[in-house]
């Protein structure tokens, strides 16, 4: 087996730039969510928007540098193999990220709320908040209970599913989660067909089906924005609507952000293909993006099951 030199990229400030960007993003996102949950009007969202601008700028230059290295033939098989492992570990870290939020939802729903309602050995009914009744979804915080009145108001005793089915939204808008599920599941099929076209040397098939994937992905984002508008404006579901509102927007919001990121990555791949990049044996940039896209599709199926259905 012949030895190959391992290409070492030139020194770059881009990793440090992305680290600073993530810090600004965490500060902006945390303050925006906290202020929105408390109903406080602030400019925290400007910090969040700044972090997005920093992120896209850094990614633009970082992607550009990596693409130039690959097009120049500097990436040997050993380095390409490290890209595969790097992407695999990155997706694994994302799985653990979402697992933490899903576990928090399960813990709150199956343990914390029943305990506060007096169920089980750790039940503490009528000790902290008299009048509390363990119901799900929990649309109001225990501290908002007044005297011994019923815990939830009339508008707080039904999940988003029930609200949709009982006329919370009109017409097709009441089926937004279903439509979004169809969009994402269909996009997994179209991106796979695009991948097959690339492996078979059919660039037209790749471009057409990857374009269809992007249409479905961006449509999903548009429908989710519409769903958020309807939830806030017509259904009273906000970040401040109890622990259910918090977990709902945390899970669906982070997922929507990941869909946006995946769509941007696949958009870059389409632009690269239109410029003649990729061939049947060298297209890991797209392959990594398709892995990521399948990952966000699987996460959405789990979200539908645990947030909208169960």
Characterise the protein shown here.
The chain is an all-alpha fold and 310 residues long. The chain has a single domain, classed as Up-down Bundle (Four Helix Bundle (Hemerythrin (Met), subunit A)), CATH 1.20.120. The protein contains eight helices and no strands. It starts with 13 loop residues before the first helix and ends with a helix.
Strand content: under 5%
Radius of gyration from the CA trace?
23 Å
Q: Give the helix level as a range of percent.
A: over 70%
The tally of domains stands at 1
**What general form does the structure show?**
elongated
Cα distance spanning the termini: 55 Å
Tell me the number of helical segments per DSSP (H or I, 4 or more residues long): 8
Structural class: mainly alpha
CATH architectural label:
Up-down Bundle
Strand segment tally: 0
User: What would you call the quaternary organization?
Assistant: single chain
Text of the CATH class = Mainly Alpha
Major sheet, described briefly? none
Mean pLDDT: 82
Contiguous uncertain segments of 5+ residues: 146-173
Order of helices and strands: HHHHHHHH
């Amino acid at each position: 087996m012949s030895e190959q030199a391992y290409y070492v990229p030139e020194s770059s400030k881009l990793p440090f730039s992305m680290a600073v960007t993530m810090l600004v993003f965490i500060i902006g996102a945390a303050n925006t969510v906290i202020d929105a949950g408390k109903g406080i009007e602030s400019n925290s969202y400007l910090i969040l928007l700044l972090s997005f601008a920093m992120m896209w700028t850094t990614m633009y230059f970082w992607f550009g540098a990596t693409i130039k290295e690959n097009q120049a033939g500097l990436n040997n098989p050993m380095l390409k193999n490290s890209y595969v492992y790097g992407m695999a570990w990155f997706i694994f870290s994302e799985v653990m990220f979402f697992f933490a939020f899903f576990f928090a939802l399960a813990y709150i729903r199956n343990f914390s709320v029943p305990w506060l309602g007096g169920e089980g050995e750790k039940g503490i009914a009528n000790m902290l908040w008299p009048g509390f009744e363990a119901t799900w979804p929990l649309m109001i915080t225990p501290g908002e209970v007044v005297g011994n009145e019923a815990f939830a108001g009339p508008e707080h005793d039904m999940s988003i599913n029930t609200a949709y089915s009982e006329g919370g939204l009109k017409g097709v808008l009441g089926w937004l989660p279903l439509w979004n599920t169809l969009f994402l599941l269909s996009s997994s099929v179209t991106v796979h067909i695009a991948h097959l076209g690339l492996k078979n040397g059919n660039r037209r098939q790749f471009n057409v089906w990857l374009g269809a994937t992007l249409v479905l992905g961006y449509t999903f984002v548009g429908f989710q924005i519409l769903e958020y508008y309807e939830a806030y404006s017509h259904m009273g579901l906000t970040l401040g609507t109890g622990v259910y509102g918090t977990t709902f927007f945390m899970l669906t919001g982070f997922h929507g952000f990941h869909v946006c990121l995946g769509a941007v990555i696949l958009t870059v791949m389409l632009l690269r293909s239109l410029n003649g990049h990729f061939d049947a044996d060298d297209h890991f940039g797209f392959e990594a993006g398709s892995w990521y896209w399948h990952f966000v599709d699987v996460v959405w199926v789990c979200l539908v099951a645990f947030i909208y259905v169960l």
